[in-house]
Specification:
With 56 residues, the chain is mostly helical. Helix content is 25%, strand content 0%.
Length: 56
């Protein structure tokens, strides 16, 4: 993707850290603490938070 076609994050710093490294660390922590569940079948959809992670 060319740089001019990318949309800047409009809410960075409001619902999640504006600093990419801080956001990455936050997400890594959530993933490290997440429980793993066995899935018997094909995953066809995901539900993703639309606001602050602490509210989801």
């Amino acid at each position: 993707m060319e740089a001019e076609t990318l949309r800047r994050a409009a809410n960075a710093g409001m619902f999640y850290p504006a600093d990419p490294k801080a956001l990455s660390q936050m997400i890594d922590t959530y993933l490290e603490n997440a429980r793993q569940a066995g899935v018997s079948g094909e995953i066809i959809a995901l539900s993703c938070p639309h606001a602050g992670y602490e509210y989801s």
